[in-house]
Design brief:
alpha/beta, Rossmann fold, 7 helices, globular, GATASE, ChyE-like, Class_I_gatase-like, GMP synthase
């Protein structure tokens, strides 16, 4: 995995399942957001959502077994939490926009999170979360609104509730897509976008760079 755009490949699990040779082809995986919620009733989930969850669980299982390296974000952290026997609920939503994230003591000693400023600002937008990490996970970051902001399983599986992957501009573009999906009042789009564009998200970007370096050297 190279640490620039040339070294990245994108795969949309909504449109196609994981290729059979995906773990041979790629050194690591970054899981972005999703139009779905893990806590949607099973009977209401579409075939596309089931395909997404199945593919993400495959990646998570490989990373938990140290067979690949993966960073799951937002919707992805819910998939990992459920797969490992944890509980995800609608009790811990966060507003769309910048949020303050604090490292735990374990976070300050972690290979990826250690050395990041604490607290730092990251971008959030979600309707569900977890009260505690799943069995076998180490809590790395937290805040008052959502107790589990990041954790690690072993040394090659990471999961964050916040989004480390988008720039502020890219995040506002995503907000426009989800403007009418209940994450925020549609009439507040301009105000919330301005808050996002004013935010400094340098520490999440550093985290992502460290992850790419770790995946490249694994």
């Amino acid at each position: 995995m190279q640490r620039d755009e040339a070294g990245l490949a994108r795969h949309d699990l909504v449109r196609a399942p994981l290729p059979d040779d995906v773990f041979d082809r790629y050194a690591g995986f970054v899981v972005g957001g999703s139009p779905f919620n893990l806590t949607d009733p099973d009977a209401e989930k579409s075939d596309a959502q089931r395909q997404v969850e199945s593919g993400l669980e495959q990646i998570a299982a490989q990373a938990a077994a140290s067979a690949t390296t993966a960073l799951f974000t937002c919707y992805g952290i819910g998939v990992v939490t459920r797969m490992l026997g944890g509980e995800v609920s609608r009790a811990f939503p966060e507003d769309t926009g910048p949020a303050e994230i604090r490292l735990t003591a374990d976070g300050t000693r972690d290979a990826l999170f250690g050395g990041l400023g604490s607290p730092f600002t990251a971008l959030t937008a979600h309707k569900e979360g977890a009260a505690a990490v799943p069995p076998g996970a180490v809590l790395l970051a937290e805040n008052d609104a959502c107790p589990v902001q990041a954790y690690r399983v072993g040394d090659r599986l990471y999961a964050t509730q916040f989004h480390p992957e988008p720039t502020t501009h890219a995040f506002t573009e995503r907000m426009a897509i989800y403007r009418n999906d209940g994450y925020f009042p549609a009439e507040d789009f301009d105000r919330l976008s301005a808050r996002v564009l004013e935010a400094s998200v340098s520490e999440p970007a550093r985290l992502l760079q460290r992850f790419a370096a770790a995946a490249s050297s694994a």
